[in-house]
Amino acid sequence: GSTYIFCKATWPDGSTLGKTRSNDKMSAGFTYWWGWQNGIYNNPEYGKKGTFSLVFYDENDSVIGKGSVKITE
User: Fold this and answer.
1) How many other CB atoms are there within 10 angstroms of residue 58's CB atom?
2) In what helix (H) or strand (E) does residue 5 lie, and over which residues does it extend?
3) With 60 as the cut, is the pLDDT of residue 36 above it?
4) Nearest-CA neighbor of 66 among 3, 2, 5?
5) Residues pairing with 51 in the sheet
6) Residue 17: which of 25, 6, 3 has the closest Cα?
7) Measured distance CA(2)–CA(27) in Å, rounded
8) What is the pTM of this model?
9) pLDDT above 70 as % of the chain
């Protein structure tokens, strides 16, 4: 089977990017690079310190992966 992947980002200031869908369906065993044109986190207007997190979902809204990074400076 295959599925679209959805990603939700949360920046240190609490603002979020709603679930954004991948352009292509992904199949088991394949990898997918996810990014934004201007980078995932490169703008301090979203908070200079705190936690940046990403959550990935499949088409059934099930969490299939997540991660975060603590920004200290």
Assistant:
1) 16
2) none
3) no
4) 5
5) 70
6) 6
7) 4
8) 0.71
9) 73
